[in-house]
C-alpha cells in the first residue's frame, strides 16, 4: 500500500482514511464513491492516488485501522490485571457499550463481508484475519476459566457477539446489550461448573 514508506502516515493520508472510515461505516462501502470521500476530506484525486492505489486499497486500510483499534482495546483490557472471567466481562461490556452508542451501525467487518461475497477478495481476507484473531483471543481468555478445551466456548462467545451486533441495528439496543451480557454470564458459568461444558 502507498503512503507508508516512512512508517508514519502523512496528514493527507490520515485525513482521507479518517473521512472514508466514518462514511464507510455510516453508509456502507459500495454506495460510497471516491468523489464523495474527496469532497468530505477536502482534497484532490491526485492526492488520493498518491496514498491509495484504488478504492479497494482504501477499504482494506479502513478495516486494518478498525482491526488495530480493536486489538489495542482488547490488549488494554487483558493487561489490566483482572481475573480471566473479569477480562471477558470487560470485553463484553465494551461490545455492549458499542451497541448502545449513538450512530451504531453494526460490526464494520460483518458489514464489509456482506458487501464482498468472494472469500478470496482482499477485503474478505482482511475480515477473516480479524475474525481469526478475535476468536483466538477470546478462546485464550476462556481457556483460563475453568478446565478443559475452550474452543467451543470461544466460538460460542463470537456467535453471541455477532448476533448482538446484528440485532443491535434492528431492535432495542439496550435490550440487545442486556441479553448479550446475560449470555456471556451463562457461558462463564458453564466454564466454571464441572461437567457443564463439552470439549
Write the layout of secondary structure elements.
Layout lengths: L10 H17 L6 H8 L3 H7 L3 H24 L5 H17 L7 H8 L6 H21 L8 H17 L5 H20 L7
Helix pairs in contact: 1-2, 1-4, 4-5, 4-7, 5-9, 6-7, 7-8, 8-9
Structure description:
The protein is mainly α. It is elongated, with a radius of gyration of 19 Å. The protein contains nine helices and no strands. The protein folds into two domains: 1-53, Orthogonal Bundle (Arc Repressor Mutant, subunit A), CATH 1.10.10.60; 55-192, Tetracycline Repressor, domain 2 (Orthogonal Bundle), CATH 1.10.357. It is 70% helix and 0% strand. Residues 10-70 form the HTH tetR-type domain. Keywords: DNA-binding, Transcription, Transcription regulation.
Q: Please state the average pLDDT score.
A: 92
- Give the count of helical stretches: 9
Helix-strand makeup class: mainly alpha
- Rg over C-alpha atoms, rounded to the nearest angstrom: 19 Å
Instruction: Please report the total strand number as a whole number.
Output: 0
Strand content: under 5%
Order of helices and strands: HHHHHHHHH
How widely separated are the two ends? 42 Å
Query: Could you name the CATH topology of the largest domain?
Result: Tetracycline Repressor, domain 2
**CATH superfamily of the largest domain, called what?**
Tetracycline Repressor, domain 2
Helix content: 55-70%
Q: What low-confidence regions span 5 or more consecutive residues with pLDDT below 50?
A: none
Outline the biggest β-sheet. Answer: none
Report the CATH C-level class of the largest domain.
Mainly Alpha
Rough outline: elongated
How many domains? The number is 2
CATH architectural label of the largest domain: Orthogonal Bundle
Amino acid at each position: 500500500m502507498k503512503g507508508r514508506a516512512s512508517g508514519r502516515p502523512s496528514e493527507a493520508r490520515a485525513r482521507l482514511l479518517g473521512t472514508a472510515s466514518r462514511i464507510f461505516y455510516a453508509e456502507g462501502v459500495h454506495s460510497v464513491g471516491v468523489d464523495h470521500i474527496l469532497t468530505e476530506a477536502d482534497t484532490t484525486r491526485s492526492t488520493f492516488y498518491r496514498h491509495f492505489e484504488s478504492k479497494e486499497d482504501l477499504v482494506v486500510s479502513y478495516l486494518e485501522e478498525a482491526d488495530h483499534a480493536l486489538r489495542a482495546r482488547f490488549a488494554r483490557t487483558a493487561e489490566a490485571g483482572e481475573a480471566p472471567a473479569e477480562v471477558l466481562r470487560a470485553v463484553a461490556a465494551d461490545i455492549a457499550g458499542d451497541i448502545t452508542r449513538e450512530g451504531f451501525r453494526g460490526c464494520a467487518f460483518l458489514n464489509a463481508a456482506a458487501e464482498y461475497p468472494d472469500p478470496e477478495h482482499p477485503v474478505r481476507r482482511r475480515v477473516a484475519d480479524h475474525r481469526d484473531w478475535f476468536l483466538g483471543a477470546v478462546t485464550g481468555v476462556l481457556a483460563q476459566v475453568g478446565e478443559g478445551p475452550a474452543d467451543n466456548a470461544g466460538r460460542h462467545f463470537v456467535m453471541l457477539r455477532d448476533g448482538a451486533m446484528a440485532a443491535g441495528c434492528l431492535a432495542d439496543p439496550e435490550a440487545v446489550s442486556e441479553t448479550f451480557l446475560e449470555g456471556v454470564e451463562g457461558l462463564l458459568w458453564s466454564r466454571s461448573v464441572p461437567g457443564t461444558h463439552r470439549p
